[in-house]
Design a protein that fits this description.
By secondary structure, the chain is an alpha/beta fold. The protein is 42% helix and 17% strand.
């Protein structure tokens, strides 16, 4: 009976992170892999759009009204942090655009906001790196816009490569992404960034860092890391340099 009464208290309280992501996000499970056991993710998606991945789509999925509505829906479950988990949607309108998304989420809730592209800049600054190899699944125009965003923020794009995809990004195998990175890496680069929260990366980050001898960051990794940091918690990613020194990075 005593054991039953303890169980009646219910599960341990979770810290919550709300995640606003595009309608075609297929990697919810990947973001969960960075989470410690006492953190829950609450996902919602922007409205469906019948468009290929492009500059136009990036602008549409970051529409203020849609982000505001998604954040208001998430506010019902009381997350302490809200993350806008889309790289292109948060870099397409420059550094000010990335920050505006966070402000829109914060205005619709009582949570702290962070967008993927803001998280990227925070990770680069945290690691003290600035010469970036940009890897994307995007068409060329969108890849170039990411370079513009990084350069506006004071970083140098020393090499870039994209897969030219207009859809199905979550289906790209690790091998394809790893080969693209190896081909694009150059000695003068001090970091690699793999863009798109819909591109799988979790299992290749640490092996590539050992192989290339430099940090490898990915969109979902930096989003999880920055959101958790706002909760005062460490991400779970064994061997990943961004997480080194935290409980989850060893």
């Amino acid at each position: 009976m005593e054991s039953f009464m303890r169980d009646e208290a219910g599960p341990a309280r979770q810290a919550g992170i709300g995640v606003v992501c595009p309608f075609d996000m297929a990697l919810d499970r990947e973001l969960w892999r960075w989470m410690p056991g006492d953190v829950s993710l609450y996902f919602t998606r922007t409205p469906f759009l019948d468009e290929p991945v492009s500059l136009e789509l990036a602008e549409d999925v970051s529409d203020d009204r849609n982000v505001q509505a998604a954040a208001r829906n998430l506010s019902a479950v009381g997350p302490k942090v809200m993350a806008y988990a889309c790289t292109s949607g948060s870099f397409v309108n420059g550094v000010a655009g990335a920050r505006r998304i966070s402000k829109v989420m914060e205005a619709a809730s009582s949570a702290q906001g962070v967008s993927t592209s803001e998280a990227l800049l925070e990770a680069l600054n945290y690691l003290g790196v600035s010469r970036v190899v940009v890897i994307t699944p995007y068409v060329a125009e969108l890849t170039l816009r990411l370079g513009d965003f990084l350069e506006e923020a004071g970083h140098a794009v020393v090499s870039q490569a994209g897969l030219g995809l207009g859809g199905g990004i979550w289906e790209v195998p690790y091998r394809t992404t790893s080969e693209l990175i190896r081909a694009a890496d150059v000695p003068e680069a001090d970091v690699v960034f793999i863009s798109c929260t819909n591109l799988p990366t979790y299992d290749i980050i640490a092996p590539l860092e050992r192989e290339l001898g430099k940090p490898v960051l990915s969109a979902n990794q930096v989003t999880a890391w920055a959101a958790l940091a706002r909760l005062g918690k460490a991400a779970v990613g064994p061997g990943q340099r961004l997480l080194a020194g935290s409980d989850g990075g060893d």
